[in-house]
Amino acid sequence: MVIVLRPQVSAEQTKQVLTAIQEGGHTGYQAGPSTIVVPKNDVHLEASLASLPQVEQVMAIDSPYPLASRAFKKEDTVIDVRGHIIGGDKVTVMAGPCSVESLDNLLEIAETVKAAGGQFLRGGAFKPRSSPYSFQGHGEEGLKMLAIARDKTGLGIISEVMEPDKVALVSEYVDILQIGARNMQNYPLLREAGKSGKPVMLKRGLSGTVDEWLMAAEYILAQGNPNVILCERGIRTFETATRNTLDLNAVPVVQSLSHLPIIVDPSHGTGKSAFVRPMARAGVAAGASGVIVEIHPTPAKAWSDAAQTLDFDEFRALVDDVERISAALSASRPLVHA
């Protein structure tokens, strides 16, 4: 059950609602200044709360992720990040190196992303690597390079945060906090990211179900942060021909269940550069709001994820592809799901 309070409700009026919920035998969780969540539906409590003057609406929602659900919000969420729109009727392109390497390299990539029509520069400053001996990123120095690239190009910046106590630091430099697949169910990290107020892109875990993914998103939303972007980046299956299996089913499935925008990551989804462009096309054709890919001027020399990284010509062709597909679909794509 979700209780929506009227605008400009005072702290005392909000406390009255929480007290009424407690007296009704339930616990209320405040998810922002005008939203309270009660995990269980109760018709008697619903009627009692609806009669309070400070309550605008009471919604009985039978879902473990009520704030992420279509029942709570029927229209698609559209997120504005520094004037760049995610979730509208145009495809969003995020691109950059797996790891931030040097400022000159990053600026060359950023200028290419901008010129090709991309809106966001991605780049890892803190890198969760499978081997402890692999390059782990430049840390804050990498974040500073990303900020310089933003100042020079106007691109939005997205970069991964791995630990709760690093959220404040990363938030100083980036426009979107990325939660990686390995951290999809790192609940302390999700809470801190939600509290930051920054838009958060939540990648699906390697073995995460759609329900688990949306419940992870609920942790962020429950902190009063409505700006959550979902990213399908491939799940682990028995298939070995690709690094992961990009689950395109997830795009329409998520859109039927949730109002949150979803983008696809065909770089991690396939692990092989030859397959990135066709799967980016497929993701947008399936209805994804955007793509995030890894690019580099000389992919073979990239410090990490070289095998799945596109060169600049391949990236330009990808952007042209997805923009054509998005334009063809925009007239018929429903922005509100029943």
From TrEMBL:
Residues 83-317 form the DAHP synthetase I/KDSA domain. It is an enzyme of class 2 (transferase). Its EC number is 2.5.1.54. Keywords: Transferase. InterPro entries: Aldolase_TIM, Class-I_DAHP_synthase, DAHP1/KDSA, DAHP_syn_2. One of its GO terms (molecular function) is 3-deoxy-7-phosphoheptulonate synthase activity. GO terms for biological process: aromatic amino acid family biosynthetic process. Pfam families: DAHP_synth_1. The keyword Zinc does not apply. The keyword Transmembrane helix does not apply. It comes from the Bacteria. This is 3-deoxy-7-phosphoheptulonate synthase.
